[in-house]
C-alpha cells in the first residue's frame, strides 16, 4: 500500500488518482494536514496526517500495511522565504520523520527535490545531476538535506530512497503551492480572464518547466522502476525551458489581444539563482523518462482545459 503525504497539493491530487488507477483505490492512502473536499474524500481512503507527528505517522504506516511512502509535504521557494521556521520544520523534520519510518519499516520512500536545490554558483545551462549545490533559499537548502540524508540512509541502512529534482510544474486543474514558477500557471488564468498578465519575473528569466501530466506519469514510472535500474538516488527531470517573453508570445499566438507587463519582485532573485535548463539524460537512460508535451502542446492543452473551467 502507498501513503502519499501532502496529497492535496499541486502534484498530490493528480498523483494519488494516477496511482489509484494503477494500483487500485484501496491501495493508495491519501493524507494531508488540510481538509479534503467531499469529491476528493469520495475517491478513496484519506487520513489526516501531520508529518511532524511521528507517532501518528507510524500508526498510519503500521495499521495500513504501507510499503511505499511519497512525501510531498513541503513549503516551496517563495512561501518558504516568508515562513522560515515552518519551512525548516516541514521540509526537514517532516522529511526526517518519513525517512526514519522508511528505515524502521523497510518502506520505499520518494521525496521530491527541485531545481531550487541548485544555486548561483551552479552552472546554469544544461545543469547536470552531479554539480555544485549551494542554494540560496531555505527551500533549496532543505531539499539538499533531503537528497543527502536520503542517500546516507540508502548507503548506511539500505533504504530504497528516491528523489526527482522537479522543474516548474504547469497544471490546469490544481493550484501551484507558492513557488517562484507559479507565474507559468497564473499567466494562463489571467490571459483568459483579463487578456493580460503582470509578470513578477523579467522577460528573459528562463527556467526549466514541465507539464503536470508528464510529471505525474514520470513520477509513477520512477516509483515503480526496479531498484537495479537506478544508478543514482536523485535525478534531474525536465521537459523544456522558457522565459516569460516566450510563453507570452505563445499565448499571444492563440489570444491576439493578450498583453503582458512586467513588475519583478523578490522572486526575481530566486529565479536568477536557478538553472536555465537541466540535463536530465541520466533519467532518460536509466529508467526511461520522456516528456510527451512540448511547449506548444502544453500551451494548447492548458488553454483548452481552462476554457472549459472559465465558461
Ligand atoms: C517553486 N514550483 O517554484 C516550485 C519548484 C522548481 C520550482 O520547486 O518553488
From TrEMBL:
GO biological process: L-threonine catabolic process
Gene3D superfamilies: NAD(P)-binding Rossmann-like Domain
EC number(s) given by UniProt: 1.1.1.103
Metabolic or biological pathway: Amino-acid degradation; L-threonine degradation via oxydo-reductase pathway; glycine from L-threonine: step 1/2
Catalytically driven reaction(s): L-threonine + NAD(+) = (2S)-2-amino-3-oxobutanoate + NADH + H(+)
Entry-linked Pfam families: Epimerase
Domain of life: Eukaryota
CDD domains: TDH_SDR_e
Single GO MF annotation: L-threonine 3-dehydrogenase activity
Boundaries of every NAD-dependent epimerase/dehydratase domain copy: 2-238
Functional summary from the UniProt entry: Catalyzes the NAD(+)-dependent oxidation of L-threonine to 2-amino-3-ketobutyrate, mediating L-threonine catabolism.
Family to which the UniProt record says this protein belongs: Belongs to the NAD(P)-dependent epimerase/dehydratase family.
Protein name: L-threonine 3-dehydrogenase, mitochondrial
